[in-house]
DNA sequence: CATGAATGAGGATTCATTCAT
DNA sequence: TATGAATGAATCCTCATTCAT
């Protein structure tokens, strides 16, 4: 089984290289040569591990959104109550200016693609669904605790949470000022709380 | 006796063709040939009117965001009071599934580029600033009327409005279901109202 | 007849513009647009007066070599004796660093073309023949005066004169130092004198 | 079992193809497709081995002038005395009508470019310097032997030798008659001898 | 005559993909 | 497995030429 593992490691290595390259340079500037350079392997390797260029990006989106989801998921597990859970969730989303910039640049590339390509859209949908579960869980708990509006539909409200998170982080990305990160973090949390109450 | 169209008309014609092509096909699939085909002119024309491909997209983003802003701007002028103004604003943003899809696909492409390219970012910033003026005006009026929270900073809150609008519409775009358009419209308006109150 | 004259004037104007452009930019960088810009006329004019781009250059070479020949021709008419005639000839060839640079840049472009294209070659041949006449005249006079070797074939020796002139001026051009102009001038004259004696 | 040719071999192969194409067709008619066709490789290969078209020509001029210099250099090594050395040098320059035509066509293209472009000019300067060394060596020996004018500056005179060689060969090229090759060869040698004595 | 908008062929360049080693 | 040489389709861009006004 060592073989298989090695292969998976190599793939992850390539995906991470693709992620870095994509974040730095953007979709249309990234070539397989550049990804290979980032990964410090030869150009042939990328083709050995992936069917074609598209496949790399498909897998990258899957890999990325899974990683994000796992991080978010574990972050809410640390808390018991709804509001701390929500705070922890938002905190895990607003990791740091560097991480958010790196991820959202790439994520915007993917959203742009997803708006026309159903393969990307479905992967994103899975991510949305996962996020929705997190949100629903928090909301349901909060409703039981009596801290959130009991008339809210957890499913709908959790989608709204994600919409607001993305809206805030995209706008923060466009402002291009690291010191605004905290302000957007707080603003985002405050807005979500207002909506849930 | 059809005279030659004036230069500016032709440029707009090409920009609209570029917009359509971009919306249909996405950034990396759009070639100058395709834009020319959409505009039903020869390939050389695009180069005659624009320095290069990049210039077309730069001008397109400017043209598009200006157009959107004008539409939004005139929509709020129709109302006197804050809440109807806000409703009118949001209504002008959520025009129709077709229009929103067409615009947001292209806008996502531009946001992705703007995240790495300051030229695009500055154009988008101008758009944000314009939207912010609209928001500020509504909020200030609402605060005078006593319908909005008087402690809100109009400038900050107006940015939050835009973030929420974009967040909702991007998510709607990803859901790829036209009938959700109304629901997202209402949801967006409701969320903004909650935040402003 | 005024019409005709005006046309010829305009053509000369365009040819001079082409000469300037060619000297500044070189064959492959010169476009009809550039020539038109140098002549401060619209692009269409160049096509109105000349069949096509090639025709401009053909006529330019003719015009240029005629102009040079006339200048050389009139310069030797000023003197009576062989050696002063020769000196005057060489002086008229080594006009100034600026003029020589301008001419020889263009002339090299034409020689390069002439080496493969018989149309250019024939025009140059006419120039060579004209120069040969000048040389022959000087040599014949010098032989009568007893200052030149009587066994020289005026025809052959005059070709050698031209070869040496071109050789020196091309090398001077490559040295790219204006102050060497006088030295090459003297060296050229001295070499020719040695050959003729 | 033919191994892949080494990179340097392939580059030389391409340079030779470029040389042939350039000689046949001239600077502005040579495309990368044509060079590739001459080399019997695909279009992409030229870009694989060279940064761009310009780089091919830069390297070609370097390669060509080096080759010429080596040939000239070894030709004078065969003789001991000044005049035989000079004869051998001139003989190596006037190789054959075919070779001279092929080289001087290309060389004229480069001289034309060099007159405006310092990169080409510097490469040519290196060639001139190399030729100058050959000439200086011959002249110095001849002065010691007492067969050349002792007052000549070897450096200057050697430049004059090169000017005369180029002047003669360019003129021969323009005459476009192979049978004149010998006559120009002899004429060139005779002229140089007159200048050195 | 003059203008400059429009055309489209042609060329440099890029890059995903293939494949021999 | 891994490499990187080779391929050629695809694309941006240039520019001579045409032609309506």
UniProtKB/TrEMBL annotation, chains A, B, C, D:
InterPro entries: BetI_C, DNA-bd_HTH_TetR-type_CS, Homeodomain-like_sf, HTH-type_Tx_Regulator, HTH_TetR, Tet_transcr_reg_TetR-rel_C_sf. Keywords: DNA-binding, Repressor, Transcription, Transcription regulation. Residues 31-50 bind DNA. The keyword DNA-binding applies. Pfam families: TetR_C_6, TetR_N. One of its GO terms (molecular function) is DNA binding. Residues 8-68 form the HTH tetR-type domain. Coiled coil: none annotated. This is TetR/AcrR family transcriptional regulator. The lineage of its organism: Bacteria, Bacillati, Bacillota, Bacilli, Bacillales.
């Amino acid at each position: 089984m060592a073989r298989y593992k090695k292969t998976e490691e190599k793939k992850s290595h390539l995906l991470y290289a693709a992620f870095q390259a994509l974040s730095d340079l953007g979709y249309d500037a990234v070539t397989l040569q550049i990804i290979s350079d980032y990964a410090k392997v030869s150009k042939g390797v990328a083709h050995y591990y992936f069917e074609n260029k598209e496949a790399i990006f498909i897998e990258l989106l899957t890999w990325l959104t899974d990683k994000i989801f796992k991080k978010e998921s574990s972050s809410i597990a640390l808390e018991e109550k709804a509001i701390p859970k929500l705070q922890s969730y938002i905190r895990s989303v607003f990791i740091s200016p560097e991480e958010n910039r790196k991820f959202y640049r790439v994520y915007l590339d993917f959203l742009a693609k997803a708006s026309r390509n159903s393969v990307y859209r479905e992967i994103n949908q899975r991510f949305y669904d996962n996020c929705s579960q997190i949100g629903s869980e928090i909301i349901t708990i909060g409703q039981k605790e009596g801290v959130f509006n009991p008339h809210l539909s957890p499913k709908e409200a959790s989608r709204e949470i994600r919409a607001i998170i993305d809206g805030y982080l995209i706008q923060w990305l466009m402002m291009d000022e690291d010191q605004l990160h905290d302000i957007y973090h707080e603003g985002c949390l405050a807005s979500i709380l207002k909506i849930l109450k």
